[in-house]
């Protein structure tokens, strides 16, 4: 493996403040390419201003690797800034049909029948073996429903059609669609298109080629809620938007990787922020993850941005992680329906969500896609 002359130019591009010392020495070296295996310190000036002769450990490969990653990320950011994304018309609400009915024999959560938004429960949901088994069942159903809903994401399909299919699949399984009637929410699933951050209400709008759509499914089965969401691509989506979706999913996966018994909750936001910042994306602060189990929303509040939240995870605990990333501002506006929340600048956003179970050595993803 050889060290080519363009290295000096690459260093100057990534580290502009260091361009002069690097370019002078690496420029001279460019006449005689050398084998990887020597550190740059072998060829840079000593404190006395003279070239050193001693060899260093074979660490040049690691430095090259880090440099290549820095160059890749810089080019990615430049591409994001220069790529022209076809401007889509602002999202407009379609016609919202009435809520679908649920058979009387299916058990319903306590909040059904009241338009009052329930307060966040202070209960930390930590389960015994029976509770864990029930959570697995509810989350497995939610995952299957979400997978099925994703197969419907095609141009010309309406989000209302997706809502109906989701509703029927859930009640056929003997479960209740948790969003239906929660604080007056009129539908059985949340469908958030393009710049809609979350809580989009299914309606008559047809999906368009190039849209992205987050589908958020929660089911209530045998007294337990299973909660999950995923952002799907509709037709031919442009590369910058596909990248946003991919990185958002990566943020979720990497955040789950830091979870285990005794880990601090703030590690989640730190990990997500590190990845999002690397690609120049914003992390929405307003919407958070939450405890889930016999109660739909409870403590702990899971913040996805950098934070100083106290508290640690406990074995047997279940909660959601559900980051929302944006291409632009993290500020938002909410329609007068009280639910549909969009990015303030109209730029796309993406979200992924899993319900996880904390174990002694890590975290079990209960809602695997």
UniProtKB/TrEMBL annotation:
<feature type="binding site">
    <location>
        <position position="290"/>
    </location>
    <ligand>
        <name>a divalent metal cation 2</name>
    </ligand>
</feature>
<keyword id="KW-0479">Metal-binding</keyword>
<feature type="region of interest" description="Disordered">
    <location>
        <begin position="78"/>
        <end position="98"/>
    </location>
</feature>
<feature type="compositionally biased region" description="Basic residues">
    <location>
        <begin position="84"/>
        <end position="95"/>
    </location>
</feature>
<keyword id="KW-0031">Aminopeptidase</keyword>
<keyword id="KW-0809">Transit peptide</keyword>
<dbReference type="GO" id="GO:0070006">
    <property type="term" value="F:metalloaminopeptidase activity"/>
</dbReference>
<feature type="binding site">
    <location>
        <position position="322"/>
    </location>
    <ligand>
        <name>a divalent metal cation 2</name>
    </ligand>
</feature>
<keyword id="KW-0378">Hydrolase</keyword>
<dbReference type="InterPro" id="IPR002467">
    <property type="entry name" value="Pept_M24A_MAP1"/>
</dbReference>
<feature type="binding site">
    <location>
        <position position="297"/>
    </location>
    <ligand>
        <name>substrate</name>
    </ligand>
</feature>
<dbReference type="GO" id="GO:0046872">
    <property type="term" value="F:metal ion binding"/>
</dbReference>
<comment type="similarity">
    <text>Belongs to the peptidase M24A family. Methionine aminopeptidase type 1 subfamily.</text>
</comment>
<dbReference type="GO" id="GO:0004239">
    <property type="term" value="F:initiator methionyl aminopeptidase activity"/>
</dbReference>
<keyword id="KW-0645">Protease</keyword>
<dbReference type="GO" id="GO:0009507">
    <property type="term" value="C:chloroplast"/>
</dbReference>
<dbReference type="InterPro" id="IPR001714">
    <property type="entry name" value="Pept_M24_MAP"/>
</dbReference>
<feature type="binding site">
    <location>
        <position position="227"/>
    </location>
    <ligand>
        <name>a divalent metal cation 2</name>
    </ligand>
</feature>
<dbReference type="InterPro" id="IPR000994">
    <property type="entry name" value="Pept_M24"/>
</dbReference>
<feature type="binding site">
    <location>
        <position position="353"/>
    </location>
    <ligand>
        <name>a divalent metal cation 2</name>
    </ligand>
</feature>
<dbReference type="InterPro" id="IPR036005">
    <property type="entry name" value="Creatinase/aminopeptidase-like"/>
</dbReference>
<feature type="binding site">
    <location>
        <position position="216"/>
    </location>
    <ligand>
        <name>a divalent metal cation 1</name>
    </ligand>
</feature>
<feature type="domain" description="Peptidase M24">
    <location>
        <begin position="134"/>
        <end position="359"/>
    </location>
</feature>
<feature type="binding site">
    <location>
        <position position="353"/>
    </location>
    <ligand>
        <name>a divalent metal cation 1</name>
    </ligand>
</feature>
<dbReference type="Pfam" id="PF00557">
    <property type="entry name" value="Peptidase_M24"/>
</dbReference>
<dbReference type="GO" id="GO:0006508">
    <property type="term" value="P:proteolysis"/>
</dbReference>
<comment type="function">
    <text>Cotranslationally removes the N-terminal methionine from nascent proteins. The N-terminal methionine is often cleaved when the second residue in the primary sequence is small and uncharged (Met-Ala-, Cys, Gly, Pro, Ser, Thr, or Val).</text>
</comment>
<protein>
    <recommendedName>
        <fullName>Methionine aminopeptidase</fullName>
        <ecNumber>3.4.11.18</ecNumber>
    </recommendedName>
</protein>
<feature type="binding site">
    <location>
        <position position="227"/>
    </location>
    <ligand>
        <name>a divalent metal cation 1</name>
    </ligand>
</feature>
<feature type="binding site">
    <location>
        <position position="199"/>
    </location>
    <ligand>
        <name>substrate</name>
    </ligand>
</feature>
């Amino acid at each position: 493996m050889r060290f080519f002359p363009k290295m000096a130019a690459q260093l100057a591009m990534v580290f502009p403040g260091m361009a002069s010392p690097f370019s002078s020495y690496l420029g001279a070296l460019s006449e005689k390419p050398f084998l990887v295996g020597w550190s740059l310190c072998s060829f840079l000036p000593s404190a006395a201003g003279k070239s050193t002769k001693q060899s260093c450990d074979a660490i040049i490969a690691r430095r090259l690797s880090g440099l290549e990653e820095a160059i890749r990320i810089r080019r990615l950011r430049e591409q994001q800034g220069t790529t022209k994304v076809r401007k889509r018309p602002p999202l407009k609400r379609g016609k919202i049909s009435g809520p679908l009915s649920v058979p009387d024999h299916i058990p319903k959560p306590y909040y059904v029948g009241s338009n009052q938004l329930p307060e966040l429960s202070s209960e930390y949901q930590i389960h015994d073996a029976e509770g864990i088994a029930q959570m697995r069942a509810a989350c497995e159903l939610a995952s299957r429903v979400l997978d099925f809903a994703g197969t419907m994401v095609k141009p010309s399909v309406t989000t209302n059609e997706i809502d109906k299919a989701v509703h029927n699949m859930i009640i056929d399984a003997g479960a209740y669609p948790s969003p239906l009637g929660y604080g007056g929410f009129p539908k059985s699933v949340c469908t958030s298109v393009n710049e809609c951050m979350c809580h989009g209400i299914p309606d008559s709008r047809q999906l368009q080629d190039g849209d992205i759509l987050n589908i958020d499914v929660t089911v209530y089965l045998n007294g337990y809620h299973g909660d999950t969401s995923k952002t799907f691509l509709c037709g031919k989506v442009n590369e910058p938007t596909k990248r946003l979706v991919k990185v958002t999913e990566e943020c979720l996966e990497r955040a789950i990787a830091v979870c285990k018994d005794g880990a601090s909750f703030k590690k989640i936001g730190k990990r997500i922020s590190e990845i999002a910042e690397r690609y120049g994306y914003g992390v929405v602060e307003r919407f958070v993850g939450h405890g889930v189990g016999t109660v739909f929303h409870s403590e702990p509040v899971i913040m996805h941005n950098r934070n100083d939240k106290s508290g640690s995870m406990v074995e047997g605990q279940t909660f959601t992680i559900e980051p929302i990333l944006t291409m632009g501002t993290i500020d938002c506006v909410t329609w007068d329906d009280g639910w549909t929340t969009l990015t303030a600048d109209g730029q796309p956003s993406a979200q992924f969500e899993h319900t996880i179970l904390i174990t002694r050595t890590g975290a079990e993803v209960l809602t695997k896609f």
